[in-house]
């Protein structure tokens, strides 16, 4: 009679609840409390469940959990909590209720249990009157929309079912999940195997790389993004949904973290290279993934449009390496760490401190010197001497760059300038849309409340959640507006440090400047230093280009 798959034994908790306040129905204006209360009485519920289970031999009732006199609006009910604890303690792996409204009337919370917690803990859930059974594979009863339809009225249901349908869609997509396809900054195109740029998120990615270029730490970048009200990748994804319930759920927003910023800075996907097969997992349900060796990764260059140039990406990788190699656990790295290399043995040059009297004296020596005295000598150089030499060379280099770029800089600057403005305008638009949406939802929410579709308690919760969001977003709009004005005025990010470096003799070199312009500094035994600048090839090409342009122009003048 029973097929093998039903032989699994379920240890079941039957949950019964009765409230004297919210189990009141109104028909044609007349309260029919008596009848409703009776049909929902604890005894009635118990009998109903036992009846039903007569035909389910695989389900054994272990315990009854009874909350008599508790509202279904929240889950602060003693026996409900006891049941959840028993689930966590593996005492039961199945929950049965007469109907969903016994379980709870807060649809969001009910959804959390039924859609997330229970599947996660492997708990079978049955709502008899709603013909819902999570172990039943047939489409009709497996569809969560069915019980919700019975639980709530049509208007309310339409909203929720749309949400749930989209939720299921997300799940289905997850089934065919390929890591790269959900990366922040990209979205799926019409051709599902091809990534296309999500211009809004891509703008944020560019901004993150730019901030890193400027020498900001991952934490500082995260803080800045949070200050600007930029949604974290996870929240951004969630925000694509709609409905005030979704908004309410995301009320306590996951903010940007240093880790999230790091993930973006190290993801080669932004250069247009698709890397897949980094990890393997037996199947999509198993969460534990195993890292595969790098040689087995599947690399496809130019698989999609790049957001970050390969050159910029390399610079950032280099910076990250320099930062971490010496600064594990430190918030600040010392000025030259990661830059200094012994010209003779290739070892790094390390920072030393000496005191003479009350004076502190910083100098650098070859680390190879200590490891093996016969291979390398001291290469000792004082920090003052090094600073002087670096500043002098850097000035010359920058002067050269400025001269060189004179004819091209304007075009370049103005294009990247307008890029930035464009990103800000996009962000502003997005934030303003959000405010409008939340205002609209607040109104909808109020109408639902007026029409008795949601309780006052729910209404007040939603309203508060929405108001908080509107306020937060409004702050972000103000910030963004300020930034945009500054940018349009041309006052924002005017590279004052550059002028200062070129004119002020006592200018102090900052790490952010080193990082941007210098790749390596070689130290020779005779205190000579050799600086390898970034973009040396590009600069040479630029010089040739400028020369050609100048020649063309002079020819043009002759003709
Ligand atoms: Zn050396």
Description:
- This protein has 559 residues and is of the alpha/beta class.
- The protein folds into three domains: 4-151, Resolvase, N-terminal catalytic domain (Rossmann fold, 3-Layer(aba) Sandwich), CATH 3.40.50.1390; 179-327, Putative Large Serine Recombinase, Chain B, Domain 2 (Hect, E3 ligase catalytic domain fold); 340-537, no CATH class.
- Helices cover 52% and strands 14% of the residues.
- It has helices spanning 33-39, 42-53, 78-88, 100-103, 107-121, 139-142, 145-151, 154-175, 199-213, 218-227, 233-239, 244-249, 258-265, 310-327, 367-371, 383-450, 456-489, 496-503, 511-517, 536-558, and strands at residues 10-18, 26-27, 30-31, 59-68, 94-97, 124-127, 132-133, 186-188, 195-197, 274-276, 279-280, 290-291, 298-300, 340-342, 349-356, 359-366, 381-382, 518-523, 529-533.
- The strands form seven sheets. Strands 4-1-5-6-7 form a five-stranded mixed sheet, with helices on both faces.
- Strand 15 and strand 16 (359-366) form a beta hairpin.
- Helix 10 crosses helix 13, helix 16 runs antiparallel to helix 17 (456-489) and helix 16 crosses helix 20 (536-558).
- The longest helix is centred in the last third of the chain and has 68 residues, at 383-450.
- It is elongated and about 95 Å long.
- Residues 1-6, 22-36, 139-181, 242-251, 280-289, 325-331, 407-415 and 490-494 have low confidence and may be disordered.
- It binds zinc ion (ZN).
């Amino acid at each position: 009679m029973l097929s093998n798959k039903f032989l699994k034994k379920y240890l079941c908790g039957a949950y019964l609840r009765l409230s004297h306040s919210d189990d009141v129905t109104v028909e044609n204006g007349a309260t029919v409390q008596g009848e409703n209360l009776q049909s929902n009485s604890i005894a009635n519920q118990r009998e109903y469940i036992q009846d039903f289970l007569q035909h389910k031999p695989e389900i054994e009732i272990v315990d009854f959990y009874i909350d008599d006199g508790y509202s279904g609006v929240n889950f602060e009910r003693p026996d409900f909590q006891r049941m959840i604890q028993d689930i966590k303690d593996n005492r039961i792996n199945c929950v049965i209720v007469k109907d969903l409204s016994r379980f709870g009337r807060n649809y969001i919370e009910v959804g959390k249990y039924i859609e997330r917690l229970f599947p996660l803990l492997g708990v079978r859930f049955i709502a008899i009157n709603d013909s819902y059974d999570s172990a039943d594979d047939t489409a009709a009863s497996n569809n969560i929309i069915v019980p919700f339809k019975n639980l709530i009225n049509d208007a309310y249901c339409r909203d929720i079912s749309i949400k749930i349908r989209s939720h299921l869609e997300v799940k289905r997509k997850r089934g065919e999940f390929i890591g790269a396809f959900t990366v922040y900054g990209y979205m799926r195109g019409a051709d599902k195997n091809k990534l296309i740029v999500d211009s809004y998120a891509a703008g944020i990615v560019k901004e993150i790389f730019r901030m890193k270029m400027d020498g900001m730490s991952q934490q500082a970048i995260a803080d800045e993004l949070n200050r600007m009200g930029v949604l974290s990748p996870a929240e951004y994804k969630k925000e694509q949904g709609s409905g005030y319930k979704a908004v309410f759920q995301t009320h306590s927003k996951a903010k940007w973290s240093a880790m999230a910023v790091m993930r973006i800075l190290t993801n080669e996907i932004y250069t247009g290279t698709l890397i897949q097969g980094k990890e393997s997992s037996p199947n999509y349900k198993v969460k534990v993934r195993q890292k595969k060796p790098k040689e087995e990764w599947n690399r496809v260059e130019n698989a999609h449009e790049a957001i970050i140039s390969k050159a910029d990406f390399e610079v950032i990788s280099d910076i990250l390496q320099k930062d971490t190699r010496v600064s594990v656990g430190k918030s600040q790295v010392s000025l030259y760490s990661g830059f200094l290399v012994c010209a003779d043995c290739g070892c790094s040059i390390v920072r030393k401190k000496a005191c003479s009297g009350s004076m502190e004296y910083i100098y650098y020596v070859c680390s190879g010197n200590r490891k093996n005295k016969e291979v390398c000598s001291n290469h000792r150089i004082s920090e003052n001497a090094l600073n002087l030499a670096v500043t002098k060379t850097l000035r010359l280099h920058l002067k050269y760059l400025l001269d060189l770029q004179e004819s091209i800089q304007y075009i370049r600057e103005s294009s990247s300038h307008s890029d930035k403005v464009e990103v800000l305008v996009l962000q502003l638009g997005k934030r303003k849309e959000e405010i409008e949406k939340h205002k609209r939802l607040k109104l909808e929410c109020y109408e639902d409340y007026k029409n008795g579709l949601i309780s006052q308690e729910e209404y007040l919760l939603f309203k508060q959640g929405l108001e908080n969001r509107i306020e937060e977003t409004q702050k972000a709009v103000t910030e963004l507006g300020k930034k945009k004005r500054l940018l349009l005025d041309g006052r924002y990010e005017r590279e004052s440090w550059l002028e200062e470096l070129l004119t002020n003799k006592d200018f102090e070199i900052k790490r952010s400047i080193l990082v941007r312009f210098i790749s390596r500094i070689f130290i020779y035994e005779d205190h000579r230093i050799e600086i390898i600048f970034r973009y040396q090839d590009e600069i040479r090409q630029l010089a040739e280009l400028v020369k050609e342009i100048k020649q063309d122009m002079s020819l043009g003048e002759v003709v």
